[in-house]
Every structure is written in C-alpha cells, then in structure tokens.
Design brief:
The chain is of the alpha+beta class. The chain has one domain. The chain is built from 1 helix and 4 strands, in the order ββββα. Strands 1-4 form a two-stranded antiparallel ribbon. The two termini are about 45 Å apart. The structure holds FE2/S2 (inorganic) cluster (FES). Its cofactor is [2Fe-2S] cluster. GO terms for molecular function: 2 iron, 2 sulfur cluster binding; metal ion binding. It comes from Physocladia obscura. This is Iron-binding zinc finger CDGSH type domain-containing protein. InterPro entries: CISD, FeS-contain_CDGSH-typ, MitoNEET_CISD.
C-alpha cells in the first residue's frame, strides 16, 4: 500500500477537463485530491490527505466537464482555470516532477547497465584465464 503524505494541495491529474455523461437522481463524488485511480470520481484514495471528495448531483442528463487539473474554483466543474496561470503553474510543476522521476529512472538504469558491463568484463576475463573460448 502506498503511503500518503498529508497535504491540503490536490495532485494535478491532467491539463484539461474530463467529459462525462451524468444523469439526474444520482449522487456523484468528485475526486478533489487527484489521487483516485477512477478519475474524475473518488475511489477513497484521499484518506490521510486532509482533502475530501465533492458530493454533487446534476439536474439534467448530458455531458458535463469535470475539472482535471484540480485547480478549478468551481469544483467539480471546469471553470477554465487550466488555461490560466494557476492551472498552467500546476501543470508545469507536474511536468517538472515527472521529469525528475524520469531522470532518477535513467540514472538507476545507467548504474545497472554499468554493473552488468563490469560483470561481463569479469566473466570474459575469467573465461580467458581458464582457457575457454570467447563467443
Ligand atoms: S480542467 Fe481544471 S479548470 Fe479546467
């Protein structure tokens, strides 16, 4: 189970809204923390974050646009913030974080590759010392 760091700041999900078909007479729970695997709806992942889902209903059956950047001032609905400085700043922070994760993966991959190369060199050296053929 992943640990959740308490935060009042929602996690960015995507830089545009989710278009979803909703119907009247039903309670919906919008994910406000950004951790749900069932975006844009709550799956309980907010526990420990200090954030809560937004319960809402709709009046008519149609497609609604629910915020994906988690920066709207009109939750659960998109209010265009994703195109403004506040939303773009969150997107930029998300990209920088992903870039950092990618760099860490590349560094780890280079280390493993380097270790594998050292094992290969040692293996060839042992083979030569033992008089074996090198293929
Ligand atoms: S997706 Fe968040 S305001 Fe539009």
């Amino acid at each position: 189970m992943a640990s959740v760091v308490p935060s009042a700041e929602p996690t960015f999900v995507q830089g545009f809204p989710f278009g979803v078909d909703l119907v009247p007479g039903k309670d919906y729970f919008y994910c406000s923390c950004g951790l749900s695997k069932n975006q844009p709806f709550c799956d309980g992942s907010h526990k420990g974050t200090g954030l809560s889902p937004v319960k809402f209903k709709v009046d008519e059956a149609k497609k609604y646009f629910l915020c994906g950047c988690k920066a709207t001032d009109s939750a659960p609905f998109c209010d265009g913030t994703h195109k403004k400085e506040k939303g773009l700043r969150k997107y930029n922070e998300f990209l920088l974080k992903k870039n950092g994760e990618l760099q860490a993966h590349l560094t780890a991959a280079k280390k493993s590759s380097s270790i594998l190369n050292e094992f290969s060199i040692v293996g060839v050296s042992v083979g030569v010392l033992a008089g074996g053929d090198i293929y």
